[in-house]
Amino acid sequence: MYDGGKVVFGLALFVALCTSPLWLSVARGGGGAEAPPLQMPAPAAGKCVRDGEWMRNSHMELLNSWRDEVVREGKRSEQLADGRVIEKSLTKTCLGCHTDKTQFCDRCHDYVGVKPFCFDCHVETAGG
Amino acid sequence: MRILVSLVAVVALYLLAWVGVGVLGLRTLFGTVLPYAALALFVCGVAYRVVRWAAVPVPFRIPTTCGQQRSLEWIKPSPLENPHTGLQAFLRMALEVLFFRSLLRNTKAEVRAGGRLIQGSSKWLWAGALAFHWCFLVVLVRHTRFFTEPVPWCVNLLAHLDGFLQVGVPAMTLSSVVLLGALGFLLARRLVTGQVRYISLPADYFPLFLLLSIVATGLLLRHVVRTDLSAVKEVAMGLVTFAPSPGEGAHWLFYVHLFFVSVLLAYFPFSKLMHMGGVFLSPTRNLANNNRAVRHINPWDYPVKVHTYEEYEGEFREKLKTAGIPLEKE
Amino acid sequence: MTSEAKPDQMAYYDREKLGQVDLRPGGADWMDVPVNMRPGSFIYPAKEKHLQYFGLPNPRQWFPTDPDWKLPANWKEIIIEGMRERLSKYRSFQVFMDICVRCGACADKCHFFIGGGDPRNMPVLRAELLRSIYRREFTQAGKILGRLAGGRELTVDVIKEWFYYFYQCTECRRCSVFCPYGIDTAEITMMGRELLHLLGVNVNWIMEPVANCFRTGNHLGIQPHGLRDTLDFFADDIEEATGVRVEAPLNRKGAEVLFVTPSGDFLADPGTYTCMGYMCLFHEIGLDYTFSTYASDGGNFGLFTSHEAMKRLNAKIYAEARRLGVKWILGGECGHMWRVLNQYMDTMNGPADFLQVPTSPLTGTRFEHARSTKMIHITEFTADLIKHGKLNLDPSQNDHVRVTFHDSCNPARAMGIFEEPRYILRSVCNHFHEMPENTIREKTFCCGGGAGLGTDENMEMRLRGGMPRASAVRHVHEKHGVNHLAAMCAIDRATLSTVCEYWVPEVRVTGIHELVTNALVMKGQKKREVNLRLEPIGAQAEE
């Protein structure tokens, strides 16, 4: 007795699962190999509160500490290295420049499958 | 010694990837060539091993029965421990593969003075093994977010549930923590338990060190180094769409992580990790205990020399006759 | 310990010392530790005449403590080729060589390890004995990395080690219950022994029964007239005990049922009482049956030799059923016999299409679960009789018996016959007590003498291997006053008697059908004052 049929079925399932991202990509017509472009604010908006490269990887850390400082310690503003004083506010400061969340925040978050809980509370547009 | 060899091997792998990407910048090699090669080895290797096993027949039906057989109508059988049909055997296998039924039975023996055996329940191995395997699966499924675009809703949901404790940003996932803990436990019991240490080979330590390194670099990438995830996904999607991306934005540690995973995939088919496929082919578990109801065929059965009744009667004719036992030929 | 006692005698072993076991292995790697071939822990080699009669290779005079085992010149080639052949014939062997992860779940499940503490008796290492050679000879990693990949050179010392440890495994399959992949050391041991047979390395305690069985139909070499005398002698004893004269037909053509039992029941106490039990039962219900001199053993030491030997010895059962023209076959209380009957017979020597589905002539029950082999277990048959009220039982005749039940390895783990014997025991005894849960049913402990290891020259290992079972027996003896251990296996009845005598002398061994008949009220019986052993019964025996 060999049970060949069952083994072949099992193996086919295994290979299909292992290579499923490939098939799925083909079925969806490819794409996704490049991160979607982000809509950057107009140059007039000025410099970001931190270095762009750092923000790319670690903005969540900044937002997290802002939340703690504002909510728990009541420290609402911060002086940057270049002398500017900004308000520690996602809605006012961040979204003030990056006006369209869907064209900026969501682009990356959706691409890498991140669901931040920022907008569970915050509204999505500046001044809203 | 066996531990040291395995540890040194993993450290060497780490150094290799660090020098390769961190110093020499061989991103295409570590980000494209090796992962492709590893995946090909993994899929083909596993398939090859399983086909090789399947090419060997199962001459006899030899399930290990762990419950009441099906016999008389009024005796309740245990279909999951002693299956009588193919479906029941399938369910028994499901319990085995999904919940490690047999390990759950584990006991620990101790002999007290005068040959008194004490057997206690011992579920730690079961718990550790189950935690490791399930968390590994969850982590694996979570990682498909890098290999799919758009990310399937179920993957996002899983990641969301996994991070429900909301500790830290990005949220610490429960599966990674338990995975690390379970691996640590499995390694610790190998090092500490006398019986297990005595039987352990380098081939037992190496995968543990390798997996620990994979989890550790993954956790570092997520919580400490914080590499650019878009760049990471570009590398992964590049592989998936056959349009390799150099992934310039990704941290070198990501390539170490990827290299460890590649090594795991490539090593898999040649190692004890093949228990993943083998468990399905174990004749003591995957067969129904219905030998007396359904004849099992041995494909290589051959005639053997037997002692026929005629020969027997020929030799013992006089004795049979004296004892008054009926004969074929008087 | 008495100074005159020899290693093959119980008295040689101090109970306190033997009961001190350290289960924490340490020290040198097992590959570097030579085998300690001490008297009392190995079995003598097969005599030349038995190998010659059965047609096995390399018959010669040798002894395990000899430096030179007189192996064939090309022994290494024979082993490698033998492994190659078996790897391609048995998926179990191939898969079990490949997938062990050395999790250690099996380590403390073997009765020989628990009773002796020898690390190579951990099931995982017993498999590694073969696996290390497999890696070295059949895997690339092992060829290149050698010891680092867990491989090792095949040397004569390895053969000696195999001989020692593959004859320290009773193929009881307890480890297989706990293994997450079901790796079955019985399979490993069977392969190991098959390989050793290719070199003529085997033990007399198995090969003599095999040769006997091939020639006379039973392991003990009982010839037809001897069996006639034995059964007549049993009938005399039965008459003395019950006042009823029973018949035991032999080779009777046209009987409805062929009855096959292990030959141990013909010769070795207390199995003989179980055989008398069958005879009384069959007489009482008027079963149309016959014993056979040709198929006078259901037991099959071929199972402990090789698959081919098993098939050669088993063939006689169907052949005899066909010759006698019976309708179906009934099997007695035996352990490994039932492994063969349940898992091998139909595949090896079937199909039994000339027989009919076993049907109880008294209750009309059709034993559908045996519709292919046409052979049922006597406890299935008797349990059905009792359930249908066909037996007049007086359990108080067993009131002096406080009994526990030892699940025999093979009926437990190669069949799953747990409730039938228990139902019978509860019906015929008023005092039945289970041993602790981890020592019964699928987790039952071996008697320590199965798979052809139950010989006196192996006394130390038998006592060690029997220790876990004895420990559980002692537990119920102390807790419930248990004084009888019932077992439905001829090897159990022989070897557990020794084990109990050593570890729990207050408990003695009995068979299921001995107790059945002792509780059976037979038509025309005289007042029952003694049991089949001709000892006082019931309340009279209490004091």
Chain-wise SSE layout:
The complex is a heterotrimer of chains A (128), B (330) and C (543).
Chain A: H1 4-18, H2 20-27, H3 52-73, E1 77-79, E2 85-87, H4 90-97, H5 105-112
Chain B: H1 2-23, H2 27-54, H3 86-99, H4 101-104, E1 107-112, E2 116-121, H5 124-143, H6 153-162, H7 174-192, H8 194-199, H9 202-225, H10 229-240, H11 252-267, H12 275-278, H13 309-322
Helix pairs in contact in B: 1-9, 1-11, 2-10, 2-11, 5-6, 5-7, 7-9, 9-11
Chain C: H1 15-18, H2 48-54, H3 75-89, H4 91-99, H5 111-116, H6 123-138, H7 140-145, H8 156-166, H9 174-178, H10 185-198, H11 204-216, H12 224-242, E1 257-260, H13 264-267, H14 271-285, E2 289-290, H15 307-324, E3 328-331, H16 336-343, H17 345-349, E4 375-377, H18 378-387, E5 403-406, H19 409-413, H20 419-428, H21 459-480, E6 484-487, H22 490-503, E7 508-510, H23 512-519
Parallel strand pairs in C: 1-2, 1-3, 3-4, 5-6, 6-7
Helix pairs in contact in C: 2-11, 3-4, 3-10, 6-10, 8-10, 12-14, 14-23, 18-20, 20-23, 21-22
Account of the 3D structure:
- With 128 residues, chain A is mostly helical.
- Chain A has helices at residues 4-18, 20-27, 52-73, 90-97, 105-112, and strands at residues 77-79, 85-87.
- A two-stranded antiparallel ribbon of chain A has the order 1-2.
- Chain B has a single domain (2-288), classed as Fumarate Reductase Cytochrome B subunit, CATH 1.20.950.20.
- Chain B is built from 13 helices and two strands.
- Chain B has helices at residues 2-23, 27-54, 86-99, 101-104, 124-143, 153-162, 174-192, 194-199, 202-225, 229-240, 252-267, 275-278, 309-322; strands at 107-112, 116-121.
- A two-stranded antiparallel ribbon of chain B has the order 1-2.
- Chain C contains 23 helices and seven strands.
- Chain C has helices spanning 15-18, 48-54, 75-89, 91-99, 111-116, 123-138, 140-145, 156-166, 174-178, 185-198, 204-216, 224-242, 264-267, 271-285, 307-324, 336-343, 345-349, 378-387, 409-413, 419-428, 459-480, 490-503, 512-519, and strands spanning 257-260, 289-290, 328-331, 375-377, 403-406, 484-487, 508-510.
- Chain C is mostly helical and 543 residues long.
- At the B-C interface, α2, β1, β2, α8 and α9 of B face α1, α3, α4, α6 and α9 of C.
